Amino acid sequence: MLGKMLRRSVATAKKRLQRSEPHLRVRLVPMFDDNYGYLVIDEANQHVLAVDPAQANAMMPVLEEELAINNRELLAVLTTHGHQDHCGGNDAFAAKYPGLTVTGPHNESIPAVTMPLQGNEEFKIGAMEVKALAVPCHTKGHLAYVVSGDPETPPLLFPGDTLFVGGCGKFFEGTAEDMYHALYEVLLQLPKETKVYCGHEYTMSNLRFALSVDPTNAVLREKIAWAKLRRSKNLPTIPSTLRDEMQFNPFLRVHDEVIRNAVGGNDPITVLANLRRKKDSFI
């Protein structure tokens, strides 16, 4: 009887050990005037990855605080694109943490990159599952990253400057067709509960513009009230979710008659181009 109980106890312990699925937590780190970098902490396996840690002197103290807990280890830096306010801290991180994996677009100048990516690659960082998505437009090689693997946490999307709360990035190195592909044919194919951790705190400006083209949207008005309260307390408006964005973000609603009538255009790509042009001149 004792032997059977012992075997059962060992089997239970093994089952627990095998449950090494990551338990993910995201820590947001404000940088510069309105940037966000992120730490994704796997609290089950004590691993950490950083996303766009561009300002090393802002990110390092937060990272060191997290690493001090249970002797955690920084495994990787994920870089969305080559703008300095997203990749400017890479050299400092690579110097401080030898052997660090640093990912970034293969066709952009990314400091300290060890794993250049084209998009659509899937790989593991510790037990965390990472997928790189090609979303060129804001920059020619722009990547978004999806981090998952925790059965109790929705996928985590880090779209850099492609998708914002209530908005999208400027078309610096691409076209409306490119951005349509990035938003509708790539990002919106993810589960709608996916959490969105974007690269900037542009929410209030984006929502004010959204209201100018969609003034009767009750969900949008509620979001504005919520965001105003958050910002009045100097709190972030991130994360959002894809499901929520589809209700009030005009750049994700170019098929909607309300948006089409507000900016003009007979097809979704023209509507998107007109919407971006209108936003670029919005005060």
UniProtKB/TrEMBL annotation:
Requisite cofactors: Zn(2+)
GO biological process: methylglyoxal catabolic process to D-lactate via S-lactoyl-glutathione
InterPro entries: Clx_II_MBL, HAGH_C, Hydroxyacylglutathione_Hdrlase, Metallo-B-lactamas, RibonucZ/Hydroxyglut_hydro
EC number: 3.1.2.6
Keyword line: Hydrolase, Metal-binding, Zinc
Primary enzyme class: hydrolase
Metallo-beta-lactamase domain: residues covered: 34-200
GO MF term list: hydroxyacylglutathione hydrolase activity; metal ion binding
Pathway linked to the protein: Secondary metabolite metabolism; methylglyoxal degradation; (R)-lactate from methylglyoxal: step 2/2
Catalytic activity: an S-(2-hydroxyacyl)glutathione + H2O = a 2-hydroxy carboxylate + glutathione + H(+)
A Pfam family that the UniProt record links to this protein: HAGH_C
Protein family: Belongs to the metallo-beta-lactamase superfamily. Glyoxalase II family.
Protein name: hydroxyacylglutathione hydrolase
